[in-house]
Structure formats: structure tokens, C-alpha cells
Design a protein that fits this description.
Layout: E1 21-24, E2 27-30, H1 33-40, E3 51-55, H2 64-77, E4 82-86, H3 92-96, H4 101-105, H5 110-116, E5 127-128, E6 139-142, H6 163-168, E7 177-181, H7 188-195, E8 199-204, H8 208-224, E9 235-240, H9 248-261, H10 274-281, H11 294-312
Parallel strand pairs: 3-7, 3-8, 4-6, 4-7, 8-9
Antiparallel strand pairs: 1-2, 5-6
Helix pairs in contact: 2-11
Bound molecules: adenosine-5'-triphosphate and magnesium ion (MG).
């Protein structure tokens, strides 16, 4: 990713940068007194407030929703405020953060927010993560329902791809990270998520169709990021999921993924573990599953480290 697009840097500002710089369509704007101090002090380094990642692969079942849920947990465990945005009509993320079908009928969801097409309107729909564990207080959710599908026919309307970015404008600034869970497609819903993102994370299983799905995301971004209003938007991390070390096929594809994506491939890989599928099935965070998932907790912590290292790297 062209980090210069979403990160400026600042010295000699005594204020916490998190609340003082807004990145707004390629222009950094100052919202409060803190920024004015920052600006007058000959700004050399200013940090972007929020980092927004779309999690995408043009192949179903790659582990997109799993990555969003577990990364949100890992980031919240280290005190970060995380907004999870469900941009998939399957609404798997919404369920995994604690909402049943019945609950969803009473919620305002991404479908209404995108339709509203108003600056900052996502705030009316944001709800809490319902995991019964303390760190859940630092995770919020913009939920989805199956009728998010109804936004797809609006794709032809002028500026429709910007509606989610518009809805999140200002709202996202209250968080350290925003994770947008995409459907397994490159159509309008994924484009809404990309237009609201600073970088893209791609999980994949080391098998042909998943690698091809990742390559299509890369090529799509190279061709269309500018049209989506995010010139330079690119994959910032490839996360290998469900690797089974006993399978030669996986070892072979892992090598080809490293050839294709080089340093973008995160280390460690997420192993294939029944306990992870069970936690996702039960809509529970890993930390509620005790000692047996320690390895998985550590894995997602390392992935969170790498993500934060990217976000904090010098431009
Ligand atoms: N490392 C893993 N080990 C075992 N099971 C896993 C692992 N990662 C994901 N799964 C399971 O694989 C299934 C697919 O994962 P997930 O729903 O995260 O994929 P997805 O990419 O979001 O799918 P979709 O494209 O349908 O949105 C889920 O049942 C999940 O629990
Ligand atoms: Mg999913």
C-alpha cells in the first residue's frame, strides 16, 4: 500500500494524535484545537487516526470472517477500540459477535445505513459486541442482515460505491481499527467496503482456488482502486489460514503464495484447528475456550502485532 496516502506523520505536537487528525478524501483536516497546535508547530509527522482494513478474498470459505472476529479479539485484548463492519449479507460476523436471527429484526443494519446515503449515519446502527467477556466492551459492530443484498441493484447509481465510506465518515474516528468483512465476491458490496478502507487483508487457504481468489483481489485493486476513490489501495497482508502441515499440497501452495506476494505474507500461518471452528460456531471469542486454544490466541496476537507494525511503520 502507498502508506503516504493514509498516513502523515507529526512531531512537536503534545496532544495524543489519535484524536487530532482526520483523513478525508486525500486531504488531512484539523478538527480541534489539538490539531491547530500540531499544525502551527511545523508539522513533520502526524499519525492517521484510524486504520481501516477490508478483509477480502474472491473465494468463499477462506477465513475472512474468522480473521475479522479473531483479530478484533486480539486487538481489543491489548486495549484497542475496534469497529467490526459486516458487509456480507450472510451476516456471519454479526452472528459470531453474538446476534441471533431474531435479534436482527430489531436492529438497524448496514443495509439501511448504506441506503440512507448520509454523512456519519452509521452511528445510529452501531451496536455492542455481545461476547460475555470484558474485552468485548472495546468491540463495536455495524451489523448486517440478509437484506443487505438489496443494495446491490443500486450499484449503477452515481457515487453509490461511496455510501458506506460516507456513512462511516467521522464515526470510524472513535476507533483504533476498523475491520470490514467482505462477501466472497468483487461486486458492489465488496466495492463499498474497499472504498471505505485504507488497506486490504487477504486470508487464504493454501489451495489453488483460494490463491486464485487472492490474485483476483490484487488485480482488481490494481485496476480499479482509483475509480473507487482510493488510489493506491492495495493488499497490505496475506494471511495463510487452515494450513495443514501434513499435506504436501499445502506446502507447495505456500511456496507459490510467497512467490506471488513476497513480504506481504504474514508469519505465522493460522493452523487448521477444530477448536477454532468450534469457537466460531458457538459465537464465542477464543479466550472463553481455555487453555487448549492458547496456540491460536498467540497466533492471532502475532498477526495483530504485524498489522500494527504496518500501521506504525514510517511512511
Ligand atoms: N484455521 C481454521 N481451522 C479450522 N476451521 C476454520 C479455520 N478457519 C476458518 N475455519 C472454519 O471454516 C469455515 C469458513 O470460515 P469463514 O466463515 O471465516 O470463511 P469466510 O471466508 O468468511 O467465508 P465466506 O466467504 O462464506 O464469507 C468456518 O466454519 C470456520 O469456522
Ligand atoms: Mg464470511
Amino acid at each position: 500500500m502507498n502508506t503516504a496516502l493514509w498516513r502523515l506523520s507529526a512531531v512537536s505536537c503534545s496532544y495524543p494524535h489519535k484524536h487530532c487528525i482526520l483523513w478525508n478524501q486525500g486531504v488531512h483536516t484539523c478538527e480541534c484545537a489539538a490539531v491547530r497546535v500540531c499544525s502551527s508547530a511545523r508539522v513533520q509527522r502526524c499519525y492517521c487516526v484510524v486504520v481501516r482494513y477490508a478483509v477480502a478474498n474472491n473465494k468463499g470459505g477462506a477465513g475472512k470472517t474468522t480473521l475479522v472476529a479473531c483479530l478484533a479479539e486480539a486487538l481489543a485484548a491489548r486495549g484497542r477500540r475496534v469497529l467490526c463492519v459486516d458487509v456480507d449479507p450472510q451476516a456471519n460476523l454479526t452472528r459470531r459477535l453474538g446476534y441471533s436471527e431474531t435479534d436482527l429484526h430489531q436492529l438497524v443494519t448496514a443495509a439501511e445505513v448504506i441506503k440512507a446515503d448520509e454523512l456519519g449515519c452509521a452511528s445510529v446502527a452501531i451496536t455492542e459486541c455481545r461476547w460475555p467477556i470484558d474485552l468485548a466492551q472495546r468491540i463495536d459492530l455495524l451489523p448486517a442482515r440478509f437484506d443487505l443484498e438489496n443494495r446491490i441493484p443500486e450499484a449503477g447509481q452515481l457515487g453509490a460505491h461511496m455510501r458506506l465510506a460516507k456513512a462511516l465518515s467521522g464515526v470510524a474516528d472513535a476507533y483504533d481499527a476498523v475491520l470490514l468483512d467482505c462477501p466472497p465476491a468483487l461486486g458492489h458490496l465488496t466495492q463499498l467496503a474497499l472504498a471505505a478502507s485504507d488497506g486490504v487483508l487477504v486470508p487464504l487457504r493454501p489451495e489453488y482456488d483460494y490463491v486464485a481468489g487472492a490474485a483476483r483481489v490484487r488485480d482488481f485493486l490494481a485496476q480499479h482502486a482509483a475509480t473507487l476513490g482510493r488510489p493506491g489501495l492495495a493488499i497490505v497482508g496475506v494471511v495463510i489460514n487452515e494450513q495443514d502441515r501434513r499435506r504436501g499440497l499445502h506446502a507447495w501452495h505456500l511456496e507459490s503464495v510467497i512467490d506471488m506476494f513476497g513480504p506481504l505474507v504474514f508469519n505465522p500461518v493460522i493452523p487448521s484447528r477444530t477448536q477454532l471452528a468450534e469457537a466460531m460456531d458457538a459465537a464465542e471469542p477464543l479466550r472463553m475456550r481455555g487453555f487448549v486454544v492458547r496456540e491460536l490466541i498467540d497466533t492471532f496476537d502475532l498477526i495483530a502485532n504485524q498489522l500494527e507494525a504496518i500501521a506504525n511503520a514510517p511512511a
